[in-house]
UniProtKB/TrEMBL annotation, chain A:
NCBIfam families: hypD (TIGR00075). Pfam families: HypD. Coiled coil: none annotated. This is Hydrogenase maturation factor. It comes from Rhizobium gallicum bv. gallicum R602sp. Keywords: Iron, Metal-binding, Plasmid. Belongs to the HypD family. One of its GO terms (molecular function) is iron ion binding.
TrEMBL record, chain B:
Keywords: Plasmid. The keyword Iron-sulfur does not apply. GO terms for biological process: protein maturation. Coiled coil: none annotated. Signal peptide: none annotated. Involved in the maturation of [NiFe] hydrogenases. Involved in the biosynthesis of the Fe(CN)(2)CO cofactor. It holds the Pfam family HupF_HypC. One of its GO terms (molecular function) is iron ion binding. This is Hydrogenase maturation factor HypC. It comes from Rhizobium gallicum bv. gallicum R602sp. The keyword Acetylation does not apply. Belongs to the HupF/HypC family.
Length: 385, 75
């Protein structure tokens, strides 16, 4: 597959890892956060951490929109889905996300609610068009990548005068959350690990460009490398970060020059700006309230805003108190440090946000990481014997 | 969730839609969010929409930089 296979060459990855080891200063430690769940998944799946020197640590950030969706938003959607006139359409990722008391959209569907999994916003529009007697609500979620398709659906719905289509908006913003990791009041409470640099998600930057990180890199004096999701992309980004740290630089660099530009996709940005505005504050599961961390529909489109149209209420629901997701999302703790991990909390029965989506730090560790740790432990055992 | 995959445009259809393929699998997607595409172009596909065009020259340059980096600073 072109533009995929050539970026998965294991031999090249090992060569670059050797260069990283040569460049890394043995007298210091390097802590890099990959913000995006897609990167976390790639790092775990391809075992990239095993290629890095001992004094280099990857911290898995909160960049998975499914993971950070507060339980109350799922509860609100389930309550709406129970109304007989409502059809909820959403992406497959959301179906299994647990709400309160073990509920989920999947279980609500089994109980008779009309909830349909769609691949695209356009599928939801087709349903609304084909079934004019149903109130079709698109449960919208995702970062800046996924927001333009929702905006486009709204444009088409308005053009076609589809009066039975609306949006439950849960679109969140990347740069605001990265900033929050370093400066929120929780940092004092939870403590924080030193972060020497960030890997930024390339697919978000195809839309927003690299420019929104400039202020952040300057203000917090942290390097940011926007990188793709194939293993060679990620390891090259780590090399770029090591070079910046060694040189004492804190710049925004673009590893994904094959599709990311400084200012991004202006057509997509215009679609977002036409229909959405910034929320002053939005709750992120695990991070708490993030200032300007999400968007909402502009007031002139209130009739397409499911929250207003159906007077939806989002209850405040607390996570399990033993859940360490908040600390894990900030890199203060690791998945295995949580006493729920692998006991009551597994991908089949996720308790906290990091286990919810396969891109979450705990789910990635459950699927791949724990086996490697086990293998390493047995190796050490043999060496001792 | 926010991942996108590179697919090749096979046919440009009406209403900003296009037929694309990935490894022999065909799909109709929206190209409303990108500038004009033509058959043969590669685009990043995300939830049924092309988000960006892939620049073949940028892709080549990335691989060249990676190969160079693999050889080391001294090379």
């Amino acid at each position: 597959m072109r533009y995929i296979d050539e970026y998965r060459d294991g031999r090249l990855a090992k060569d670059i890892a050797r260069q990283i080891a040569t460049l890394a200063d043995p007298a210091r430690c390097y802590h890099f956060m990959e913000f995006c769940g897609g990167h976390t998944h790639a790092i775990s799946r391809y075992g990239l951490e095993d290629l890095l020197p001992q004094n280099m640590q990857m911290i898995h950030g909160p960049g998975c929109p499914v993971c950070v969706l507060p339980i109350g938003r799922i509860d609100a959607a389930i309550a709406l889905a129970m109304r007989p006139e409502i059809t909820i359409c959403t992406y497959g990722d959301l179906m299994r996300v647990p709400g309160s008391n073990g509920s989920s959209l999947l279980k609500a569907r089994t109980a008779g609610a009309d909830i349909r999994m769609v691949y695209s916003t356009l599928d939801a529009l087709r349903i609304a068009e084909a079934e004019p007697d149903r109130e079709v609500v698109f449960f919208a979620i995702g970062f800046e990548t996924t927001t333009p398709p929702t905006a486009l659906a709204l444009r088409i719905a308005i053009a076609k005068e589809l009066r039975n289509f609306s949006i439950f908006c849960n679109h969140v913003l990347t740069p605001a959350a990265i900033q929050n990791i370093l400066e929120s009041p929780d940092v004092r409470k939870l403590g924080t690990v030193k972060i020497d640099g960030f890997i930024g998600p390339a697919h978000v930057s195809t839309v927003i460009g690299t420019e929104p990180y400039e202020f952040f890199a300057e203000e917090f004096q942290k390097p940011v490398v926007v990188a793709g999701f194939e293993p060679l992309d990620v390891i090259q980004a780590i090399l770029m970060l090591v070079r910046q740290v060694n040189d004492g630089r804190h710049e925004v660099e673009n590893q994904y020059i094959r599709a990311v530009t400084t200012f991004g996709n202006e057509k997509a940005q215009t679609e977002i700006a036409n229909f959405f505005e910034l929320c002053e504050s939005f709750e992120w599961r695990g991070l708490g309230e993030v200032p300007y961390g999400a968007v909402r529909l502009r007031p002139q489109y209130a009739e397409y805003d499911a929250e207003k149209r159906f007077s939806m209420v989002t209850p405040a629901v607390k996570d399990n108190p033993a859940c360490e997701c908040g600390a894990i999302l900030r890199g203060v703790k690791k998945p295995a440090d949580c006493k729920l991990f692998g006991t009551v909390c597994t991908p089949d029965t996720p308790m906290g946000s990091c286990m919810v989506s396969y891109e979450g730090a705990c789910a990635a560790h459950w699927t791949y990481g724990r086996f490697r740790e086990h293998a390493k432990a047995s190796e050490r055992g043999r060496a001792v014997a | 969730m926010c991942l996108a995959i590179p697919v090749q445009v096979k046919e440009v259809l009406s209403d900003n839609m296009a037929k694309v393929t990935l490894d022999g699998v065909s799909k109709i997607i929206s190209t409303a969010l990108v500038e004009e595409v033509k058959p043969g172009d590669y685009v990043l596909l995300h939830v049924g929409h092309a988000l960006a065009k892939i620049d073949p020259e940028g892709a080549e340059r990335t691989l060249a930089v990676i190969r160079e980096a693999a050889l080391g600073e001294a090379a």
